[in-house]
Amino acid sequence: MTSQDFLKKIHQTQFLLSAPTFKLCPADTGYEVAFAGRSNAGKSSAINTITHQKQLARSSKTPGRTQMINFFTVSDENARIVDLPGYGYAAVPESMKIKWQKELEEYLVSRQSLVGLVLMTDIRHPLKYFDEQMLHWAKDGGLPVHVLLTKADKLKRGAQKAALLATKKQLEALDLPFSIQLFSALKKEGVHDLAAVLGDWLHLSELDGNIATDAIADDAAASFDGTQAVTAND
Ligand SMILES: Nc1nc2c(ncn2[C@@H]2O[C@H](COP(=O)(O)OP(=O)(O)OP(=O)(O)O)[C@@H](O)[C@H]2O)c(=O)[nH]1
Ligand SMILES: [Mg+2]
């Protein structure tokens, strides 16, 4: 299957549930990919862009807005995307931070259905302490990592390349399996590369295409135009 075929399935992504804690996650079956990153890194925007839906995952100008763990199903309940709460937001009380760190570690290390981590970082910022912490847990959990350098539109080509190289070096030093790409929700850049990774990790080519009809793809396009906004997460 091509990334175009994967995108058709990814456009059918639906909101499943919001959980305040990992204890309330959906059943640990099938395949799950987690989207993680510092607060304001562009996680929700990336999910909205790849699913071609305007407000599937909320995105906002207020950092730390996504406090719940949001689960989405990608054309089948056995293929899920998870929007993890952003970390590193200074205004969150220390006790909350520690609670979340413990939860995240447990989730990354022991969730059976978790098959990969998409780690997002603003292209203008290098990976910080907690990003590296996430990467160590991913390594402990045997997870491959795909890094998105988000908001790539904020830099010119030369600076984008320099950031890509610098982050690659940081990742190589951590000695874990990774891939990396530029991404821009604003310019819709890097969408096919990300679709190919998700298609592979979520085994989308194995799902039967029973709902992969053009009619549903058209619905997704309509919602993206704002004529049929998806607000399941509100
Ligand atoms: N220029 C530009 N801005 C972006 C891009 N992606 C996201 N943003 C902006 O960055 C801000 C944060 O984006 P979100 O998608 O809400 O980030 P998040 O990681 O989900 O944030 P939290 O849920 O609060 O942790 C918003 O103001 C977005 O409009 C991008 O590709 N380009
Ligand atoms: Mg968010």
TrEMBL record:
Its cofactor is Mg(2+). Pfam families: MMR_HSR1 (PF01926). PROSITE patterns: G_ENGB. One of its GO terms (biological process) is division septum assembly. GO terms for cellular component: cytosol. Keywords: Cell cycle, Cell division, GTP-binding, Magnesium, Metal-binding, Nucleotide-binding, Septation. Residues 29-204 form the EngB-type G domain. It comes from the Bacteria. Necessary for normal cell division and for the maintenance of normal septation. Belongs to the TRAFAC class TrmE-Era-EngA-EngB-Septin-like GTPase superfamily. EngB GTPase family. This is Probable GTP-binding protein EngB. The lineage of its organism: Bacteria, Pseudomonadati, Pseudomonadota, Gammaproteobacteria, Moraxellales. The gene is engB.
